[in-house]
Inverse folding.
């Protein structure tokens, strides 16, 4: 298939991603709209006067139709105007800027640990399929896949911070800390994320490699007397790189979005903690901005994985 056809397929994926973002933005807005109670009264408290409540309603345009407020919010967001926080009065973009950097630092550090380990374990499990190493790795990953993120976090907190005292119970970082000090501070939440995503990534990597082992050219290599180790390392794994790359991108997407629970467990100053605090304070502009940013990152990384898989695998470009 020619380059123009590939370009068309990529453009279709991009349009699909934009449509998905639009639908997600609608869900985020509706989700905050259907929360029980009056937003202005919830923010000001029960002691607020009717005049104060009405003034806040006017400020938030709560008397306008919901569809009109949604359009204005989406237009402002597309132009980089995230509004003001109702709790602090600061610009939402200023509040998010530092927290987003902290979340990316935690997620990328976990990715640097988790991705090589999980891909290596997946390769090892495929290499020794149905043997002790494969069964041990599979059972271990099944345990972590079945355990909720927050429970793993609390167990690591009990072990690393309370029992051994090696790591801080509250994972807080600042610009005044050295890089090593920051790594020490995020050790437990980073390990929590790494354990969770490694289990998923390892299982998917193993499945991707074993699916390639069913191809005719693998059978030909076996008939020529090639060992299983050589077949997997030099034939199966290189040809499984496209789905493995797709798995890696999805892992990154999960890491960045999945930090919400882990940040809450370790009281880490990231986007997830910021969003939870905003929900508790009914800070709607901040909640909406955090929700849409998380969704945008997740959709963008999934879209990147889909496009890379499309470019790497010619069979996906064939018309059905």
């Amino acid at each position: 298939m020619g380059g123009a056809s590939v370009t068309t397929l990529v453009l279709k994926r991009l349009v699909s991603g934009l449509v998905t973002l639009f639908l997600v933005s609608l869900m985020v807005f509706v989700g905050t709209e259907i929360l029980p109670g009056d937003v202005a009264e919830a923010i000001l408290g029960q002691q607020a006067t009717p005049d104060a409540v009405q003034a806040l309603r006017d400020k938030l345009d709560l008397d306008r139709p919901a569809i009109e407020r949604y359009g204005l919010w989406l237009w402002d967001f597309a132009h980089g105007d995230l509004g003001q926080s109702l709790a602090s009065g600061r610009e939402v973009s200023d509040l998010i800027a530092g927290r987003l950097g902290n979340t990316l630092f935690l997620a990328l550090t976990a990715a640097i640990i988790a991705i090589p380990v999980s891909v290596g374990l997946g390769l090892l499990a495929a290499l020794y399929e149905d043997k002790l190493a494969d069964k041990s790795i599979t059972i271990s990953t099944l345990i972590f896949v079945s355990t909720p993120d927050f429970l793993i976090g609390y167990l690591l907190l009990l072990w690393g911070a309370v029992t051994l005292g090696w790591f801080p119970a509250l994972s807080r970082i600042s610009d005044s800390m050295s890089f090593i000090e920051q790594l020490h501070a995020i050790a437990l939440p980073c390990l929590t994320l790494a354990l969770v995503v490694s289990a998923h990534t390892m299982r998917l990597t193993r499945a991707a490699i074993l699916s390639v082992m069913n191809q005719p050219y693998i059978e030909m290599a076996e008939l020529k007397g090639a060992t299983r180790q050589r077949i997997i390392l030099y034939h199966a794994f290189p040809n499984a790189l496209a789905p493995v790359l797709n798995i890696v991108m999805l892992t990154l997407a999960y890491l960045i979005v999945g930090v919400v629970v882990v940040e809450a467990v370790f009281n880490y100053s990231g986007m997830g903690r910021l969003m939870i605090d905003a929900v508790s304070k009914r800070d709607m502009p901040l909640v909406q901005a955090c929700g849409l940013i998380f969704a945008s990152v997740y959709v963008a990384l999934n879209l990147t994985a889909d496009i890379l898989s499309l470019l790497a695998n010619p069979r996906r470009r064939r018309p059905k």
